[in-house]
Amino acid sequence: MSSVDVVNVHKSFGDNDILKGIDMQVGQGEVVCLLGPSGSGKSTLLRCINGLVMPDKGHVAVGGSLIGRKVRDGKLHDLRGREASVQRERIGMVFQQFNLFPHLNVRDNLMLGPRAHRLAGKAELEEKAGLLLNKVGLGNRADAYPSQLSGGQQQRVAIARALMMEPELMLFDEPTSALDPELVGEVLDTMRSLAEEGMTMIVVTHEMTFARGVADRVVFMADGRIVEDARPGIFFDNPETERARSFLRLV
Ligand code: ADP
Ligand code: MG
């Protein structure tokens, strides 16, 4: 069974056709690296998958439920407000910018989302935050504020924060692009262990070593379309299209 189904997704902004009919399936526990030149529509596709952007045409389903829509009285309705945000929380998203709350310590950054939605009691959430901080190697930094952490540590906190909601899918949009080179490895290691635990992941990245070593599949986009969809060994060693070959020469 697919965990993510993207079916004929189109999206335009004004006169610009950004996604021109995207079809993509991701299986449970699969790790897909989404590669492609800047402007090819990768971030827009991730935003369609978690419901931040609604496609103009086509649809996305995660774990069998339509994103951003529900069926009522035999008709499709757009989800709004709280319903939409509750659905979005089933999907973790990590951005290039870590977006931690600067006035909250690490523990409270983790606890804010779930507490706001009254999913569990304070003690339970605190325990869960502690476990997740251990998992990302920051068990001893729960009382630190974001400004006291390196970029790599902040990004690992952002990953732990996303995991607090027990997402069925994690989306990463260039999670290491804002980091100093020496801090990239620790974030990729955290993502690699998440992948090894069986998390379903879609990762937009320019880290080709990560894509080759961790991804089950590489999906290569250019100009709003999927141009190649292959196992990493095949994509990197034997790309089918000139478009992919010229991309790979530049990275
Ligand atoms: P990528 O992540 O592959 O670099 P994006 O999905 O961010 O590509 O963007 C593709 C194009 O869509 C860019 O030219 C960008 O300017 C445009 N775009 C993205 N989001 C919006 C928006 N909300 N409004 C207008 N244009 C947008
Ligand atoms: Mg982008």
TrEMBL record:
Every ABC transporter domain range: 4-248
Keywords in alphabetical order: Amino-acid transport, ATP-binding, Cell membrane, Membrane, Nucleotide-binding, Transport
Membrane topology: Peripheral membrane protein
Record InterPro entries: AAA+_ATPase, ABC_ATPase_HisP-typ, ABC_transporter-like_ATP-bd, ABC_transporter-like_CS, MetN_ABC_transporter-like, P-loop_NTPase
GO molecular function, one term: ATP binding
Compartments, record wording: Cell membrane
Top-level taxon in the UniProt lineage: Bacteria
Family, similarity comment: Belongs to the ABC transporter superfamily.
Name this polypeptide is given: Arginine ABC transporter ATP-binding protein
Organism expressing this protein natively: Arthrobacter liuii
